[in-house]
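Appendix B, Record 12. Input sequence as logged:
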Amino acid sequence: MKTENYEYYKQKCLEELFELQDQFNTNYNLDYYSNWYYDHATGLFTFSKDDEEINFTYTLVSTYSRKDNTLQWGWAKHNLPSKVKHGLEELRQFGIDNNIEELNTALISTNEENAWALTAMAAKFSKGIMGYRPVSDHLLLFVVLNEYIEPDKVKRIKEKYIKCNEHKSARVAFVCQHLSKTEKTGFEEAFETWPDMELDEDDDLEAWCSECEEIRLKDGGWNDENMKYSNIKLVCEKCHFEMKDNNLEKG
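Logged structural output:
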């Protein structure tokens, strides 16, 4: 793509974003809400006032430092879950295919105006409905809000997460009392799992030790008695996978 064509395309994305934001503010009136916060684990961006709140899924497009005028793309932040990178890999690939350096370079020198234009492009690729720029830890966060989430679904999403003393907020997992991060007791699970995998709404991360598996098979499945022996406990997803790694690693 020629430079002049790319700049025109980027400007058109910015104009489309402004139109989206006008419609968004008509529908949701963010000026009414006094607080905002986001949770990478649940993938929810929340605006609240007293006991009222509205929630959206979101894409963390980039962070921008006013100190050195640099932008880091969200796709380059490896600690971010994939659910808050929606559309970014497609935008990056667009940059690779068209030899557009600023779209496929992790850290670039730029200005805030261009950061908004890049956010507009991300909104197009993620099918977003709003661009937002909160300030966090002296950085500007460029975010695209993608979809409004109804309160009943928000409740179901939050019920799937647990506060962990070690890992903060993460998806809940159910493990037997014998699994640990230090002792090797074997590791059985309801289905093959991997970190940050997408789960159906009715699925949970579940795991138990080899001894519990032997008893379960002998009894022809789970029952009140062997469930009592397993004494299922709640842990966070990250603890679950640390237990899995400990039990499956050789040595």
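Residues 3-151 form one domain.
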